Amino acid sequence: MAETKHSKVLILGSGPAGLTAAIYTARANLSPLLVHGPTPGGQLTTTTEVENFPGFPEGVMGPDLMQLFEKQAVRFGTEILTDTIVSVDLSKRPFELTGQGDRRYSCDALIVATGANPRLLGVEGESELMGYGVSTCATCDGAFFRDKVIMVIGGGDSACEEALFLTRFGSKVILVHRRDSLRASKIMQDRVLNHEKIEILWNKQLKKIHGSKESGVTAVTLFHSETKEEEQVNTDAVFIAIGHIPNSQLFKGQLELDENGYIVPAPNSTRTNVEGVFACGDVQDHVFRQAVTAAGSGCMAAIEAERWLEDSSG
């Protein structure tokens, strides 16, 4: 049987939440172990320039920002390992986790910062142009498209909220929905339908995004679900707004999750329903989903974990 690696605090995830939790727990002399998957850094590593993270008045590239987070965490004594955790047992103390190749871990306190992934369509040009005119976050990237034509894909509350937000920047916002009516709440529908800057294309599906990393997005190909015809529509940006998938599958049946799979923390806290387990970042946040709020919740989780360990050892 593989040897078990034990730590007082184990952190799952290396985005802003996980690395902030690592910085705080390391500075509290808790010698945290941070385990991340094959692509460290969370969603920020898939973005280009980040302009809204405090302390970087000129902006900073997403991957560069996450490297700075990691450097700071390591400086204070965080150990970082690359592994994919395949199972977790929160019914035992210490908690037990199993990685690939039957690698074993145990910890007294667990901080879950596994994030969430935006739902994508998988169409041609989507992944290639992500960060070059294709985005999943209007708050993050809307300001890059001032006086431009912006397209939003989706028909629920998220898509309507993104479309309305983007009217602050774009000369025109085109909302593309695959059905003939919106799924959003009535108040959101009314706002979108009555907004002079928003045009809705009904019964249309995104088939291809045109452009290059040099030019950015230039146009899209849309497919009409009823007539089966295709058309090309010019646009400078495409925002995919069809929801997020929280990375919480490991904890199903052990931690309390909402109907969409987000971990449910206690009010005004990062504590979960299992004592000694804390959740921070996008895996428990379906509202804000910002790097700075994720980092803030990582700080909260670290402080709560430190206090919990102190109380439980006393």
Give a quick rundown of the structure.
The chain has helices at 16-27, 62-75, 138-141, 157-166, 186-193, 291-313, and strands spanning 4-12, 33-36, 49-50, 60-61, 79-82, 87-89, 95-98, 104-112, 116-118, 134-135, 149-153, 172-176, 198-201, 204-212, 216-224, 230-234, 237-240, 244-246, 277-279. The protein has 314 residues and is of the alpha/beta class.
Looking at this protein, list some descriptive labels.
314 residues; alpha/beta; seven-stranded mixed beta sheet; five-stranded parallel beta sheet; 6 helices; 19 strands; 28% strand
What are the SSEs and their pairings?
Elements: E1 4-12, H1 16-27, E2 33-36, E3 49-50, E4 60-61, H2 62-75, E5 79-82, E6 87-89, E7 95-98, E8 104-112, E9 116-118, E10 134-135, H3 138-141, E11 149-153, H4 157-166, E12 172-176, H5 186-193, E13 198-201, E14 204-212, E15 216-224, E16 230-234, E17 237-240, E18 244-246, E19 277-279, H6 291-313
Parallel strand pairs: 1-2, 1-8, 2-5, 8-19, 10-17, 11-12, 11-17, 12-13
Antiparallel strand pairs: 3-4, 6-7, 7-8, 9-18, 14-15, 15-16
Helix pairs in contact: 1-2, 1-6, 4-5
